[in-house]
């Protein structure tokens, strides 16, 4: 039982050493600064993921600064009366062997912590996945060759459709001109006796014109009737 525990402790120690030797090293405030009064350490720490086995390196002037590891309460209140560890060389390396914890550091020179020289580092477990480990590239997927398509033959042109011959258009039939109608000749009327014409009598006296009522039938009678009437009128005038 004791031998098993001893082996377990040795294995844990070896793992801690290997993890420390293969962890990343971060210079506090780099690359723009170091452990000084100008660097914003809250912003710097937010851009780095710390894991178990990494280490911090504090570079500064020993005459001007130092490094104290403190509790969270002393970190928040900038109190250096009860430090957990003290570093004063100006080139201090602080290992971060355990994951799942937060480490707190301040400058112990009066007024420097209040001026911003304070650092909180959250250390993740080593098994959470190293940021530098590249994800394995997926194996290329072999694409099955596509079957070559046969050349597309053009569709045959449709046979020309025979058009039925059109019927000859008949010329318009001219309507027959009506034959002229022969008019029956009218009978020529005999010349009418002029009323009031002088008829030579036996006494050489002019004849008296007949009354208007007697002239009407003369206009429609035949020439012989007209002559007879004229003779009668002449005889009446004579007697």
TrEMBL record:
Keywords: Glycoprotein, Metal-binding, Signal. Residues 130-172, 180-206 have a biased composition (Low complexity). CDD domains: Phytocyanin. Pfam families: Cu_bind_like. Residues 1-19 form the signal peptide. Residues 24-125 form the Phytocyanin domain. Gene3D superfamilies: Cupredoxins - blue copper proteins. GO terms for molecular function: metal ion binding. InterPro entries: Cupredoxin, Phytocyanin-like, Phytocyanin_dom. Residues 130-219 are annotated as: Disordered. This is Phytocyanin domain-containing protein.
């Amino acid at each position: 039982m004791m031998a098993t525990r001893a082996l377990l402790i040795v294995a844990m120690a070896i793992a801690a050493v290997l993890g420390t030797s293969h962890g990343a090293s971060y210079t506090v405030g780099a690359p723009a600064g170091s452990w000084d009064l100008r660097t914003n350490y809250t912003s710097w720490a937010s851009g780095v993921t710390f894991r178990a086995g990494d280490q911090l390196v504090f570079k500064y002037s020993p005459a001007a600064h130092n490094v104290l590891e403190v509790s969270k309460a002393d970190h928040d209140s900038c109190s250096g009366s009860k430090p957990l560890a003290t570093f004063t060389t100006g080139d201090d390396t602080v290992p971060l062997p355990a994951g799942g914890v937060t480490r707190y550091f301040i400058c112990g020179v009066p007024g420097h912590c209040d001026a911003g020289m304070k650092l909180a580092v959250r250390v993740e477990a080593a098994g959470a996945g190293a940021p530098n480990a590249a994800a394995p590239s997926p194996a290329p997927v072999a694409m099955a060759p596509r079957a070559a398509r046969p050349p597309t033959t053009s569709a045959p042109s449709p046979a020309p459709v025979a058009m039925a011959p059109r019927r000859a258009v008949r010329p318009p039939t001219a309507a027959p001109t009506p034959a002229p109608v022969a008019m029956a000749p009218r009978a020529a009327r005999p010349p009418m006796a002029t009323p009031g014409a002088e008829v030579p009598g036996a006494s050489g006296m002019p004849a008296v014109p007949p009354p208007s009522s007697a002239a009407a039938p003369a206009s429609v009678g035949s020439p012989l009737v007209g002559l007879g009437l004229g003779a009668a009128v002449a005889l009446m005038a004579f007697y």
